[in-house]
Amino acid sequence: MFAARLSSQTDWDGWRGTTRRLMTLGIAPGDVAWAVGGERHGGLFDVHDLPPPPPGPEPEFRVPRAFIPLAETVILHRDSQRFALLHALLLRLQEEPRLLEVASDPDVARLAAMAKSVRRDQHKMKAFVRFREIADDGGERFVSWFEPEHHIVEATAPFFQRRFAAMRFTILTPDRCADWDGRTMRFGPGVAKDQAPDEDRLEEAWRVYYAAIFNPARLKVAAMRSEMPVKYWRNLPEAPLIPVLIASSQARTDTMIDKAPTDARPNRQRAEPAAPSLLPMAGTIEALKAEAAGCRACPLWAPATQTVFGEGPAGARVVFVGEQPGDKEDLAGRPFVGPAGQLFDRALAELGVDRLKVYVTNAVKHFKFEPRGKLRLHKTPAAGEVRACRPWLEQELALIRPDLVVAMGATAVTSLFGKSMPIGKTRGAVIDLDAGTKALVTVHPSYLLRVEDAYKAQEYARFLDDLRLALPFLADARKAA
Length: 481
What we know:
Blueprint: E1 2-6, H1 12-25, E2 32-36, H2 67-74, H3 82-95, H4 106-128, E3 132-136, E4 139-145, H5 153-163, E5 169-172, E6 176-180, E7 185-189, H6 203-213, H7 221-227, H8 242-247, H9 249-258, H10 285-292, E8 318-322, H11 327-332, H12 339-350, E9 359-362, E10 369-372, E11 375-378, H13 383-400, E12 404-408, H14 410-417, H15 423-426, E13 430-434, E14 437-442, H16 445-450, H17 453-468, H18 471-474
Parallel strand pairs: 1-2, 4-5, 8-9, 8-12, 12-14
Antiparallel strand pairs: 3-4, 5-6, 6-7, 10-11, 13-14
Helix pairs in contact: 2-4, 13-14
């Protein structure tokens, strides 16, 4: 195994020079351990320095024109395998010069998807950076906070330099920071979010402007939620306005049509049906809970007694997500108080976990049931009902920002990941959810109530083993907000 070291995560020149040397020496991608900056070379085998290049003229390598912009973009991706993947593709291009035209090739498709993800992240940075005014020794300065998915800060900062050339600004991120003093762009290490300023005097003016340019006739809530993921909400000063603007969109559209200066009436294309609950933007858990009490995003609210929202400290390190309220929860208005909840409490107690230090909620906030005489039998929520309720869970997680989310049951998994996933394949492993948050998949406690008696002890032990993986995240429980 040979060592290859780059000066930074985006060291394009270093990767290009090192890869040329590797190809000259005939070293295969699988025999190279890449490291960045002061990182240690990982792996199970000894790592050796690269030998000197052989004497004589350096061989020439064919590089298709399309490879350069592809590689320059992929280098910005956060996948640690990107250096080796580009090396491997470049080797294949020596024998297959038109390989990049084969979109179905697995290597080409993977690198194209990585480049697309980087470009999308750059678009998000340009769209969702919001500057706040502060004062320093030089006078007026504008500072923003952004959390990129990839290493895009240095590549994207020139956009802001061109757009705000006369404005001194700083863009803070967890990876890198960019600072423009009006003459020179400088980059430094990342910082924590608490270094970013809070609201400034300009934000109320911005909200007034945003409300004035909001066009209700062109409203597409689904597209809005897709283009404005939950992770960006807390950094947008206009976010609290959006539920109100959505709720009033149809009335404003009708008014615009009625005031048209011509007798010709266009077809009234009604804006996408939406209540404020389709895009919750509350600033606290209590405010979010109050807003959810009036949710009418799906039909489940009508037969249910009430909305059953999550409960627990707003600063909880671990959030447990169940599937939906049961009969007892629907009547009490609290999650996990029925038979399954009692079993859940028993498991927490056996592991020494104080339920008051964790946040407990459900993927669906209303009880879906089928009447059978005087009984109300649980019925699995439909996919559309899970989607309708997902914004509430997203906002809960955005406000709490837990270190770990435990998804209990298939409905919870679907809501958390946005797609159905087999519990058997993902159960009992801590996996990445998004920046700074992990996820753990396990069964719902109600499953343990339904399993045959011969297997109850065994399945309960497995459930305990799953929850035991959450204990490291609870070791130093932070103070609840």
